[in-house]
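Example 3.2
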Amino acid sequence: MTNNFDINNTFDPDKENQAPKVSKEVATKLPTPAKGVDHYLRRTDTDPRAAKRAERQVAALFGSSSLFTLIFLVSFVAIPRELKISVPFIGITGAQNLVLGVSFGLAILLIGIGAIHWAKKLMPDVEMVQERKEMKPADDVQEEALDAFRVGATESGVGSRKLIRRTLLGALAMFPLPFVVMLRDLGPAPKGELSKTVWKEDLHIVTDITYAKIRPEDIPVGNLISAMPENILEIQEEDHNLNERGKAAILLVRMRPEDIKSQQGPDWDYQGILAFSKICTHAGCPIALYEQRSHHLLCPCHQSTFDLADSGEPIFGPGARRLPQLAITVDAEGYLVARQGFQEPVGPSFWERGA
């Protein structure tokens, strides 16, 4: 069995493709080679050209990581955020988001692949056994660990393989830069965008999925319907995103008028039909679990519970704010419409909400 330690000489960092050499004192403290485990020399252990080729491959992986980091930085500045492209199996998506995700993902991946290739081809691969020590090491045990670390650093070849060392340092030096430029996405502040939805006066309420207009007689007492504004598809096609759809989602619930304890505005219901935002005020999850007898609405994410008969007030769970209510009525043809937009922001709290 081969042992990669030579205790008779001192390791020379200027010479490549040599086995690490440590002192006798340090070598006696290191883990011993495992007994009964066959060790087979790799080609890079016996062929200097193969070792040099593997070194160039590792350096190429680290260098490629740096290249993709540069692509990330350039794309962040050069590609307009408004640019949309069609991608197979994904659909319409932002070109900048796609390039940023792919380039940064490859930058991380190539560092990992390079490190694995380095370890498998160039670092020592002898099976070693080390007895488990006590939880609180003594001073000599700590010194032993430091000695093992020093030998490991020598074994890795980071001192002798300058090409790998330089490309790795370059890749690691550039790796944090995307995080720095992404700080730009913290601003500017969204101002009033988070407080607004597409709901407005006389806008028809339609069923989700089918987008059919709704009459009061379509909703029996005790029923719950997921609904949207009638222009939601046009807005989606125009903006190529689902942001407005998420903010505008509502629930229509019908109960007996005498069961309604309170509302967020005077007579905001229509014949016992109430409209509330479908987005939980805790973490933004969609809500649709309705208990007919108690008029309670349960969020499936964190069990926040809201009383729809009492202005959508929270009665249990982490949700601290009530579900915003949408005032509704009917038009001349008898279809349900909004009387106005939401009077308070929908969804979870945010720093500019003010209440």
